[in-house]
Amino acid sequence: MPAAIEIAQDRDAAVARQFLADNPDIEVVEVLLVDLNGVHRGKWIPRHKLESVFDGGLRMALTGVTPDIWGRDVAALCSKTGDGDGVCVPQVRTLKRLPWLSRPTAQMYLHLTDRGDPWGYDPRVILAQLQQRFSDLGLTPVVAPELEFMLLSSDRDADGLPQVPRTRIGGRSKVGGQLYGTDIMHEFAEVLHEMREACDAMHLNLDTLVKELAPGQYELNQHHLDDALQAADNAQMLKRVIKGVALKHGYLATFMPKPFPQADGNGLHAHISLLDENGSNIFNDGGETGSDALRHAIAGLAATMADLMLVFAPHRNSYRRFASGSHMPVAPTWGYENRDVALRIPIGDPAARRIEHRVAGADANPYLVLAAILAGVLHGLENELTAPEPAKGGSRGVERTLACDWRSAIRDFDNSAFVAEYLGAPFKEAFSAIKHVELDEFDRTVSPFEYDSYLVTA
What we know:
The chain folds into two domains: 3-119, Ubiquitin-like (UB roll), CATH 3.10.20.70; 132-449, 2-Layer Sandwich (Creatine Kinase, Chain A, domain 2), CATH 3.30.590. The chain has 14 helices and 15 strands. It has helices spanning 3-22, 50-53, 75-81, 123-136, 182-187, 189-201, 228-248, 292-304, 309-312, 366-383, 406-414, 417-423, 425-444, 448-454, and strands at residues 28-34, 40-46, 59-61, 85-90, 96-97, 105-114, 117-118, 140-153, 206-211, 217-222, 251-254, 268-275, 334-336, 343-345, 355-357. Helix 4 (123-136) packs parallel to helix 10 (366-383), helix 8 (292-304) crosses helix 10 and helix 11 (406-414) packs antiparallel against helix 13 (425-444). 44% of the residues are buried.
């Protein structure tokens, strides 16, 4: 083993020992992988076993990051890998106490290696490799994810449909959600404040909490970070905080992109800028419209968006967000201070010039979303692509060029040479296999609506 790696392992193990010393009541540590669907997979280990993880003593199946959404193995991937084990590499900066749990518990993220090499199916590895490509060019991405979610009743109605909690202001109305409504937030102050306090305790860089447009819908924004991998870790942990605290208070928090067909869906918007080796934003040329590098980045994101729709909208329900009249982008359009486009350039201080990517749903894997955005930006910069003219108005009348359904998105992903080149052939292979299995399961399942429609009338 190289000396530098041994030194890093010793340093990280010392940090873990100090964490346990500072938290003497911790009984269990959850050691976690994040699979390609953004679901946590892992083990509980007693506190005295934590240090062994830093010595390479923890193994999990290489397919631990590739189950389908129901947690089942994908046969083609098991056959490909032999379903062997990989060594788990701990990420000590993600070692955090879970403050909402009554039993003292901590968590720590891992990534997988196969015989010492980073495992290309692992979403943390995919993002880390994209981030390294920017570092090799002397550039540092600065990113900030914004997550929308809905706070719902824990029980469903008699038909199995989710329910919006009753409020003094709106009853159970699903018509309007009191956008920016602070009064309605006070009705849920206990749970919302505990979410904020848990984020503070876990150092998740929470910025603002906002009541969003749909009933029961909120948005949590995080500060801009010059480490995309840490930003993704924080976003993944933030989703866990929101779900865990909501459950503690008797609610269901969901990142499902479109729980209610008549209401706005949940998105994951991401802001990105790039710093050079002097710490200067290369998207800023001192003017209002931004630099040539900004337009190269926009062009790269636009050129690759169709190939990557499966990353931004990975599930069957994801495509309900893109319904007609929902103000969702149907093409890779861009514009200045325009929330009807896929790529918005916010106005303000030129030194903070950035791109807001507005396509992904909140169900998307934060690691893969940021990796896809970095890949698109890199493609534009490396090839000095030319951006089209910015959109002046809304999306009405714009020709749809992005997939409007799951099957089409899978097809575009499968046909993409760009995905394999920039995100890796192993990732493309694994993600495609998972999505084909999931699509087939939905295609074979008869819904209650079909029975209601055809059982008697056909």
